[in-house]
C-alpha cells in the first residue's frame, strides 16, 4: 500500500506540531483513555515536574485540546485534566499521520 492509498482511508490524518514539544503527546495519550485525571496522577505518570505539566497543560487548554477543572478534596485544592472532543480528534489525527509516516518509511523502494 502506498502513502496515497493511506490518505483515502485516513482523511483525518494530520500532523499537529503541538504534540511535538515536551511531554504533550504523553500527557494526551494518558488522558485519551480516561475521563478526568487528577493533576498529580498525570504528572507522576508522564514523569515531568509540576511546572512542566502546568505549562504544557495550559498550552493544550489554550488550543482547545484540554479541559481543566479545579476544586478541592476536603480542604486541599485539586486540579483535574481531560481531553476535549477537539483534543481527542487532534490526537487521533496526529497518531494516524505518524502511522502513515512510519508506513511510508517502511515501504521497500
TrEMBL record:
- Give the domain of life: Bacteria
All copies of domain Winged helix DNA-binding, residue ranges: 24-101
What the entry lists under InterPro entries is as follows:
WH-like_DNA-bd_sf, WH_DNA-bd_dom, WH_DNA-bd_sf
Coiled-coil stretches: none
Q: One of this protein's Pfam families, by short name?
A: HTH_34
Question: Which SUPFAM superfamilies is this protein grouped with?
Answer: Winged helix' DNA-binding domain
- Report what the protein is called: Transcriptional regulator
Record the organism: Amycolatopsis alba DSM 44262
